[in-house]
Design a protein that fits this description.
Order of helices and strands: EHHEEEEEEHEHEHEHEEHEHHEHEH
Number of helices: 11
Radius of gyration: 18 Å
Structural class: alpha/beta
Largest sheet: 8 strands, parallel
Distance between the termini: 11 Å
Helix content: 25-40%
Shape: globular
CATH class of the largest domain: Alpha Beta
CATH superfamily of the largest domain: NAD(P)-binding Rossmann-like Domain
Length: 308
């Protein structure tokens, strides 16, 4: 019996974004089918420390993630993902930072593939932090990009990210911006990946048809999206219990009467029984659930652990 440790570079080399998206999509379908035991995550020190766990009944496997989060350091996420399975003697420990950014990107890839117009190719990314690159990679995997605008309050981070992504985005026009409202004006897809506590843009700044992914706000005190956008869009969420516990924008919109719980559809349900959209704008709101980490950990286990 041994514990196999997998670092960030090994994770990146072992798992492609396409593999991650496919694994997370299957996980959301199983989540909707009741195949997971998945407690709402434990958040300590107002989300600075998180503990998440999931058990997949069909495979008799389980994952536990513990991490600390600090937006003032690089990397912002530090911790471990631990994988065990009754069919394997060995266990796996993986870097939580790499798993988290990969699985969050993968969830956005699943939602974008489901909700964005088939020909959408103009992405505006708001936020150039640690999660940003995988947001672009995921969208580009399911909707090959023609144009990418990276928006950040400081142009330096946006420029660094643009330079980092350029070799992966051959033929894509990449620019940076600091004016968020102007940058979303002609977007076909918007990804929000910030620690904002108030909406990043007003609803009227968006075009009539657009798909918006919001991943940054993961506590009730945080918000990236305005109530009006949620009220006038088809809203897909990762998991209702987690959203009602942690999503500041959803909680704010519910309290304001802009939406009701009936306006929220879980992604797994939407994948298996697509709903007729209420309008031309679609929103995917995720706070991140343990099933996503389980899905990536399972991929890693299949690649790094022998089966007895």
């Amino acid at each position: 019996m041994q514990t196999v440790t997998v670092g960030p570079r090994e994770i990146r080399e072992a798992v492609t974004m396409r593999e991650a998206i496919d694994a997370v999509r299957a996980g959301f379908i199983d989540l909707a089918a009741g195949e997971f035991e998945m407690p709402t995550r434990t958040a300590l020190r107002d989300g600075r420390f998180l503990v998440m766990s999931a058990h997949h009944r069909a495979s008799a496997s389980a994952m536990i993630k513990t991490l600390s989060l600090n937006f003032d350091r690089v990397p912002a996420i530090a911790g471990t993902v631990v994988w065990t399975e009754t069919g394997r003697v060995d266990s796996l420990v993986a870097d939580a930072g790499a798993v988290t950014t990969l699985r969050t990107g993968a969830a956005v890839g699943v939602a974008t593939d489901l909700l964005a117009p088939a020909n959408a190719g103009r992405l505006t990314l708001i936020g150039a932090g640690g999660q940003a690159a995988d947001q672009v990679r995921a969208v580009h995997t399911v909707r090959p990009l023609r144009e990418l605008t990276v928006v950040d309050t400081g142009s330096h981070r946006a420029e660094v990210l643009a330079e980092q992504l350029a070799p992966e985005l051959s033929g894509v026009q990449i620019r940076t911006a600091t004016d968020t409202e102007a940058a979303v004006g002609d977007a076909e897809i918007v990804c929000c990946a910030t620690p904002a506590t108030s909406p990043l843009f007003p609803e009227q700044a968006l075009p009539a048809q657009v798909h918006v992914n919001a991943i940054g706000a993961f506590r009730p005190t945080m918000r990236e999206l305005p109530d009006e956008l949620l009220a006038n869009s088809t809203v897909i969420i990762d998991e209702l219990e987690a959203i009602l516990e942690e999503s500041g924008e959803i909680l704010h919109a519910l309290k304001a009467g802009a939406i009701t719980q009936d306006d929220l559809t879980e992604l797994g349900t939407a994948l298996t029984a697509p709903q007729a959209p209420r309008g031309e704008r679609t929103v995917f709101k995720t706070v991140g659930v343990a099933m996503q980490d389980w899905a990536i950990a399972r991929l890693l286990a299949d690649k790094f652990l022998p089966r007895t």
